[in-house]
Amino acid sequence: MCSLAQVLLDPYYRTLQGFQSLIEKDWLSFGHKFTDRCGYLQSDAKETAPVFTQLVDCMWQLQRAYPSAFQFSERLLLHLHDHVYSSQYGTFVGNCEKDRLDLKVFLLPQAVVLIRQ
How far apart are CA 114 and CA 95, in angstroms? Predict the structure, then answer.
């Protein structure tokens, strides 16, 4: 879990802007297979795994242990986790950036943009 190591080593990733850039960089741009891992469609059961949920849980555990070290609360983590599995926003749909372009999810509201507000 490179994302977790970055959060532990660099306080920037414990800020709202830093955590957002971490999600965009390590999970969206590098091509985490959200559609397969979250089981959005009829896919191979071997591909379904709660990898992103594990990151959210690790972040929650760290926040509980060191609440003053983070610029955001567990509400953000719950909000983010809910939107990953709801498929309401195009941000977490598809297995890579190409899938999101092919599916034209840029026409849908983007969850990462909503985090900024």
Answer: 21
The one-letter code for the residue type at 33 is: K
> Structure pTM?
0.76
Average pLDDT per consecutive 10 residues, the chain (117 residues; last block may be shorter): 91 94 85 74 71 90 95 91 79 75 69 49
**Positive or negative: CA dihedral 61, 63, 19, 92:** positive
Q: In whole angstroms, what is the distance from residue 84 CA to residue 48 CA?
A: 14
Dist. CA 93–CA 87, nearest whole Å: 6
- Distance, CA of 63 to CA of 78 (rounded, Å): 13
The SS3 of residue 113 is helix
Domain boundaries defined on the chain: 2-116
